[in-house]
Amino acid sequence: MLTTENLPKDYKGVRIMVNISEIYPNEAERVMFLRGLIRIAKADGVLEPEEVVFFDAAVQGLGVSVTVGAELRQILLDDIFTSPYLEMQFAKPAQGLFFVREAMLLCYADGEYSEEEQLEILSIATELNIPLKKIEEIESWVKAGVVWREAGDQLLEL
Questions:
Q1: How many CA atoms lie within 13 A of 28 on its CB side?
Q2: Contact 42, 83 (CB under 8 A)
């Protein structure tokens, strides 16, 4: 019998699921991820409902404690001018790269990847020592994925 614990990570060489606990094994790293999402969501000065939904899904998916999740959500909802600066730092390069990918997906949650969001991602990438070339590669991949998803939605008349 298959359970979530024994599901395969890939099928015929195609990865079918990301185990977030492998990327961010402890709550401190998961909180760092969420802090980054807060920075991205607030970068353009407008907090869209889709960004809040994305953040809430990330809190639930990452499995942080209810108390910590509520504290972070309040920072997200606080006025941009009263929010604390949230420094970013991960122990492993893969954690930063995964964050950048997910952050770009958050940017597209409201249908727009604004200049302010792009600048914030570059700022975070600098803090995380991620080369610009890698950011550009991830950005290209995310854009292609958004186009692919939109084409699928049109095909299915969604």
A1: 4
A2: yes
Residues 97, 73: Cα–Cα separation, whole Å: 23
In terms of phi and psi (left: phi > 0; alpha: psi -120 to 50; beta: otherwise), the region of 12 is left
| CATH 3.30.1490.20 corresponds to the domain 24-155 | no
Query: Which residue ranges make up each domain of the chain?
Result: 24-155
- Go through 86-112 and write b for each residue having 16 or more CB atoms within 10 A of its CB, e for each that does not: bebebeeeebbbbbbebbbebbbbbee
pLDDT digits (tens, 9 = 90+) for 61-91: 899 999 999 999 999 998 766 666 788 899 9
The pTM assigned to this predicted structure is 0.77
